[in-house]
Amino acid sequence: MYKVFIVDDDYTVRTDLKDMIDKNKKYVCIGEAENGEVALDRIRETKPDIILLDIEMPVMDGLTSLPHILEGSVCCKVIVLSCHDDYDNVRLAMKHGAAEYLLKQRMDEDNLFKTLNQVASLIDNDRISENELLKRRRDDTINLPAVMNTLVIDMIRGHITDVDLIGMKIGAIQSKFPMDKLVVSCLIVDESERHSTWKDEPFVFAIENVLGEIIDNTKGTIYGKSDKKTFYMISGFRASDSYLYINNFIYGLVDEVSSAIQRYLKLTVTVGVSPVFATVSQVSEAARQASLATEYSFFSGKGSIIHYTETEKHTEKWSADRRKVQIKSIILNVTKEDDQVESAINSLASEFRSELLDIQTLKDFHAELMFAFNQKIEELSLTRYIEHFDRAWPNMELTAYIRWLSKLITRIREVYLEGKQSKFSRDDITRALAYLDSHYMNITSLNDVAKHINLNKSYFSQIFKREIKENFTVYLTKLRIDKAKALLSDSDTKVYEVSSLVGIENYRYFSKVFKELTGLTPIEYRKRSQLG
User: Fold this and answer.
1) What tens digit of pLDDT does each residue of 318-365 get?
2) pTM for the whole thing?
3) Domain 423-531, CATH 1.10.10.60 — does that match?
4) What fold, for 2-130?
5) Domains 143-310 and 423-531 share a fold
6) Nearest Cα to 479, choosing from 430, 520, 431, 443?
7) Alpha-carbon distances of 211 from 166, 172, 176, 449, rounded to whole Å
8) H-helix or E-strand containing 221?
9) 412 and 373 in contact (C-beta within 8 Å)?
10) Which of 110, 324, 427, 493 is paired with 32 by a 20 to 30 Å CA distance?
11) By the 8 A CB rule, do 286 and 182 touch?
12) What is the architecture, at CATH level 2, of domain 143-310?
């Protein structure tokens, strides 16, 4: 069971949240507060697993209280609550450690528990990691790769910064590891069809084998994994080592690792490299910069080696108004059959290539574009056919992103036009059926009806069969036989005259078709209907 604490100045919101949480045995509400200041002491006392934190509150708001809440709470996760127009504050909260967010206007049971479950999974992962760490530290027989992995992850997460302690731990792994200068490299295995078919454990084991073969023979470097496709290397150097030497060493090492993974596993690796740092206390920041560098593979392509300093030139930011203009040019034309959308997408790709945009601008643009697409889907009533698009950054390179965006737009357009065409088709068929019902006796061919409703006969034949599930001739014949049955039952008209009245001049043919469709001859049908 996960303990939940609610911080919101609105009593109604707190009450609604408690009522919803009480319906799920997986969660229990252990407390509440009306502002951040009151919440801090209560949170320290109750030690919740999940905190639902409103952004806008009096006395102390959510953004101010967030860092104090997270301070020292490794497994505690925060979900911020926001209003529709609060996107900038949400982004700021996520940047400062919030795990997820919920929009108040969409806060029903489904959305609440979906978000709570996502955050609960994060807590489970943290608990597993901590339990494994404690177990490994208690186990004197643990192998060195596991000790090294734990140390590296502790260092890049900032859990351990003491120079003497790190030196002692590294000494147990490598006899020589200078720490006067340090560089962190982040290796991310790129997504691929081959990667997606691998199970997690064999996949990670294969990558670790390649890293081990190379790095275990390279003094001054340790490595570890933060998840199944993200690995970090920490390389140490002497004070006397020049920046040229360090640069050549790092690029030679990551190139050797990348080439080996490509050669043995047929996978590409994107690598981010941090600047040189002087103290181990800066390893966490170096890891952040190395990880951020990998995101700029959007411009350089997957499989690149990107130094953090290369990202510093990407300083161009798009204002909210600029993003709105770009999004509007795409959304306004998404349902049109001409090439205006393609033109807008190509223009967007050109601007992405020519302008040195920072990665956060791209993420903001993507999130807002997906939000606009989702609104358009709802506006066009297409939610039955197209699920809402995820606003999370898809982490693709530029060419793949533009291709993906084009496919997404094509999908919306096809569904919309198919529905629109179907509506028009149904209107045309309704008119055609009405005309058939009153003129069936005089119609000689499909072309007679097509002319009446002003359609090309080939197109009319196509939509008639699609909507009615029968071709035109079969439908007309059945209609005439139905009309004949009515005449045979309700009048004394001679049988051969009935044939002529419904538009079938050949009586022999009429009798044959009538029996095929009813199982009786016209005369037998009349007798049975009169007896009935």
Assistant:
1) 988 999 988 888 887 777 765 677 788 888 888 888 888 899 999 999
2) 0.53
3) yes
4) Rossmann fold (3.40.50)
5) no
6) 443
7) 21, 19, 19, 74
8) strand 221-227
9) yes
10) 110
11) yes
12) 2-Layer Sandwich (3.30)
Using DSSP's 3-state secondary structure scheme, residue 235 falls into strand
Matching residue, tokens 């200068």: 181
Q: Which helix (H) or strand (E) holds 332?
A: none
Residue 253 dihedral angles phi and psi, to the nearest 5°? -65, -50
69-122 pLDDT, tens digit per residue, is 887 555 689 999 987 667 788 888 888 888 888 888 778 888 899 999 999 988
Residue count of the chain? 532
Contact 484/495 with Cβ under 8 angstroms? no
Provide the residue ranges of all domains of the chain, joining segments of one domain with +: 2-130, 143-310, 320-405, 423-531
Backbone angles phi, psi at 29, to 5 degrees: -85, 120
| Cα(349)–Cα(398) distance, integer angstroms | 8
Phi, psi of 4 (to 5 degrees): -115, 135
Task: Provide the token pair at 241.
Answer: 């080592």
Q: Could you tell me if 147 and 207 are in contact, meaning their C-beta atoms sit under 8 angstroms apart?
A: no
Taking only Cα atoms into account, the Rg of the chain, rounded to an integer number of angstroms, comes to 35
Higher-scoring residue by pLDDT: 528, 338? 528
**375: which 2 tokens?**
């609104």
Burial per residue of 99-135, b for 16 or more beta-carbon CB atoms within 10 angstroms, e otherwise:
bbbbebeebeeeebbebbeebbeebeeeeebeeeeee
